[in-house]
Specification:
Blueprint: H1 14-20, E1 32-34, E2 37-39, E3 43-45, H2 57-69, E4 74-81, E5 94-95, H3 99-113, E6 118-124, E7 140-141, E8 158-159, H4 162-181, E9 186-191, H5 196-201, H6 216-219, H7 221-234, E10 239-245, H8 256-266, E11 272-276, H9 284-287, H10 299-302, E12 313-316, H11 322-330, E13 336-339, H12 341-345, H13 349-354, H14 369-376, E14 410-413, H15 417-428, E15 434-437, H16 447-450, H17 461-472, E16 476-479, H18 486-492, E17 496-499, E18 508-510, E19 517-522, E20 528-529, H19 531-535, E21 545-550, H20 555-566, E22 570-574, H21 590-599, E23 603-605, E24 609-613, E25 617-621, E26 627-631, E27 634-638, H22 646-652, H23 655-660, E28 665-668, H24 678-690
Parallel strand pairs: 3-4, 3-13, 4-5, 4-6, 6-9, 7-8, 9-10, 10-11, 11-12, 12-13, 14-15, 14-17, 15-16, 17-28, 20-27, 21-22, 21-27, 22-23
Antiparallel strand pairs: 1-2, 18-19, 24-25, 25-26
The chain binds adenosine-5'-diphosphate.
Residues 413-419, 437-440, 445-446, 483-484, 500-503, 644, 647, 670-672, 681 line the site of adenosine-5'-diphosphate.
Length: 706
């Protein structure tokens, strides 16, 4: 095992990987034909969106290039919209409306080819659920959808005439032609997740009475005509793939038997099937958050594709376990291991497997931060701070330059995700002495309690991976059981001091109208608790009836509620928001967990603001500002995580003492600066370590925009 910072990620060829890999894993590195093309191995980076627009093509390019460099045999772009009227405005992506677009995205294919991978591009049209705001034409619906079903869409479509169908098919064919001209090897028709061809297939959308509606043969007509025409146009030298949702498990798609029948009808026109799951309104089936689905859970549906085709099949399943990947390929369940999330978390997964460097893999935790972050703010990953920053900040996931000040001893105070990330990256940047001091017996910070919530164990991988790195980086010394105060820091001998003391749950709730403490809502009392007190410190939860008061609206309160339910408490989850845990909708777990909480006898109480806590219950203000009292034996406060920045601010206020003790620089990172998502805490630690020798590391260097 080479030391992590001596891990040479220089150029490679796929032949070299095949020569290197242990025989046992050789089936994962066996080439396979996809129509007229040959993929060098079975690692397939499937299409997924990063939220990058046509003005940010370098971000898209460098992100995909890095996956090819990491050894993926096929690397796809994100969605490429084929026509203005098919665009879903909620997320930016590629466009291939004309030849100029094709020229603009051609360098992405070139970059993927640099490393011997095939380049795939997913052509997409959202049909009747498009939201072409700037185009200002009603979207093209398969049939009239001016019904209550439009609840699921943001725009109301117009019924397509036969002329519209012909015109849209022309646009698909033109887009396919342009994709080939741009150098793409595998050209997709997106027929999943309510994309246009699926809208023709799904009775939910398709209520036509002409030759495009009614029996399956008619509903499949649009897809079949499209594939015939695309095949005639580019099929001689370009592989044609269909991303196909095999099992809708709800509205907006096909149930599995009709899906398999469709595959049989279209199979002669297709070179590869990329199998997705789920239709409208149940994207968790496709995104399989780790809280709800084991790794590989999608196989229960995707493996059935083989009943309908002999063509290669790729499917995703949050695969990170190499033995499961191997079984999946050797059993013939799938021909390619598809990945979005595992390759976002670790673009070098295939090369690490080839090298037998399994410990080095940054395993996806299935938080699904990536899937929603690009819609909300900036694409990111809970495990991999470099995801999305490959071009913008020039961060390579495995390569680190030696820092100009690497000879300075570093003290990191706090071993949560941010502190661990920072310490390990500093070591990889050549720092000889990186001491990480942690108050508790174990590192992990807030992951120590969070990963103990029912089903959230995979999130602990964030810590396990960094502990593994720290063990293998001789420069990193971890000192547990040591709580440092300002004097302790001054005495320690660090020249660079980084405070990563995190943000424990606030022990006092605050009235949102006055910003003053809520009477009685104080976790120094026996019947008022914080999650850390309950889960880590063993503070007894008195009585049976417990309220969880949640102002964060993410997964944490759902998990804490279930933790208490599992221990026999009757729990009511109370929130000031009208929609309980609305931020957890984004992670794909909210509906399921809310259902589980109700099924276990719990209660969800939205739109209540905490006003007072007494020994026998809590008083809330409802939407009319009337008081509602809920009787309970205990209340768990999940109002906010409060940055523990006292140590940092104390040190900051004593520049002379710091100078006397040889401290040249003082920084704060992660939740100590401000409470944030896990991905942002990791990013914060990583960012400081990457920029530790910049003119002012406390402020991020400007990042490239495009
Ligand atoms: P982040 O997400 O920013 O990494 P966490 O809250 O997860 O923050 O972790 C902060 C860590 O810092 C915790 O493990 C906590 O025990 C530790 N810590 C807090 N104060 C001190 C201190 N004074 N000395 C050493 N460790 C500390």
């Amino acid at each position: 095992m080479t030391e992590p910072h001596r891990w040479n990620m220089g150029p490679f060829t796929h032949d070299e990987l095949r020569a290197q890999v242990e025989d046992r894993y050789a089936p994962l590195f066996t080439p396979l034909r996809i129509g007229p093309k040959t993929a060098p191995n079975r690692f397939y980076s499937v299409p997924y969106a990063g939220g990058w627009s046509m003005h940010e093509l370098n971000l898209e390019l460098e992100h995909r290039r890095t996956r090819a460099e990491g050894g993926w045999g096929v690397v796809c772009t994100g969605e490429a919209m084929i026509a203005r009227e098919g665009v879903a405005d909620m997320i930016d992506g590629l466009e291939i409306f004309d030849d100029a677009d094709a020229r603009a995205i051609a360098p992405i294919a070139d970059a993927i080819h640099e490393f011997g991978a095939l380049a795939g591009i997913e052509l997409v049209h959202y049909g009747g659920i498009a939201s072409p705001r700037t185009w200002r034409m009603p979207p093209l619906a398969v049939s009239q959808m001016q019904s209550d079903a439009m609840f699921f869409s943001t725009a109301v479509g117009q019924t397509m005439t036969r002329g519209d169908i012909r015109r849209v098919q022309d646009e698909w064919v033109a887009a396919a032609r342009r994709a080939r001209a741009a150098g793409y090897d595998v050209v997709y028709v997106h027929c999943a997740h309510s994309g246009q061809p699926m809208q023709f297939l799904a009775p939910y959308y398709n209520q036509r009475t002409d030759e495009y509606g009614g029996p399956l043969e008619n509903r499949a007509r649009f897809l079949l005509e499209l594939l015939e025409r695309i095949r005639a146009e580019i099929g001689d030298d370009t592989a044609i793939a269909v991303r196909f949702a095999i099992e809708a498990l709800g509205p907006g798609g096909l149930e599995i038997e009709e899906a398999l029948a469709t595959m049989r009808m279209a199979d002669h026109l297709v070179d590869l099937w990329d199998i997705a799951i789920g239709g409208l309104a149940n994207s968790d089936r496709d995104l399989t958050p780790s809280r709800l689905y084991e790794e590989g859970a999608s196989l229960q549906w995707s493996r059935r594709a083989k009943e309908a085709t002999d063509k290669p099949v790729v499917g995703s399943g949050r695969f990170t376990d190499v033995d499961l990947m191997l079984r999946t390929i050797t059993s013939g369940d799938l021909d390619f291991i598809g990945a979005a999330r595992p390759g976002i978390a670790d673009p070098f997964l295939p090369r690490k497997i080839a090298a037998g460097e399994f410990g080095r893999v940054r395993e996806c935790i299935g938080s699904n931060h990536c899937a929603y972050s690009e819609v909300q703010y900036t694409f990111g990953c809970s495990q991999n701070a470099t995801a999305g920053e490959e071009y913008r900040r020039g961060w390579h996931p495995e390569q680190f330059t030696r820092a100009a000040n690497a000879d300075r001893p570093v003290l990191v105070v706090g071993g949560g995700p941010a502190g661990l990330e920072c310490a390990t990256v500093l070591a990889r940047r050549g720092f000889e002495q990186v001491h990480l001091v942690e108050a508790e017996r174990q590192v992990g910070g807030h992951m120590r309690w969070f990963a103990k919530l029912p089903g959230f164990n995979p999130w602990g991988r964030v810590i396990e991976h960094r502990e593994w790195l720290a063990e293998h980086l001789r420069e990193v010394q971890i000192a547990p059981n040591t709580r440092l105060d300002a004097e302790g820091v001054l005495d320690y001998g660090g020249a660079i001091v980084i405070v990563a003391t995190g943000a424990p749950w606030a022990t006092v709730a605050t009235d949102p109208f006055t910003n003053t403490p809520v009477p009685g809502a104080d976790a120094s009392l026996d019947h008022v608790l914080t999650p850390e007190q309950v889960i880590l410190q063993g503070k007894p939860v008195p009585g049976r009836r417990v309220l969880v008061y949640d102002c964060q609206a993410d997964q944490m309160a759902l998990g804490t509620t279930q933790y208490l339910q599992e221990r026999g408490h009757e729990v009511e989850l109370v929130s000031p928001f009208a929609d309980i845990a609305n931020r957890a909708h984004q992670d794909g777990v909210s509906f399921a967990l809310r259902g589980e909480i109700l099924a276990a006898g719990g209660r969800l109480r939205p739109s209540l603001i905490l006003a007072a806590v007494s020994g026998s219950g809590a008083v809330f203000l409802d939407e009319t500002f009337s008081e509602t009292e809920i009787a309970c034996d205990a209340i768990v406060l999940m109002t906010r995580r409060a940055s523990d920045d006292a140590l940092y601010l104390e040190l900051d206020a004593m520049p002379e003492r710091r100078a006397q003790e040889g401290i040249q620089a003082l920084y704060r990172i992660g939740d100590c600066a401000a409470p944030q998502d896990l991905a942002e805490a990791i990013f914060s630690g990583h960012r400081l370590a990457r920029e530790i020798d910049s003119p002012d590391p406390s402020v991020a260097l400007p990042a490239l925009r495009a």
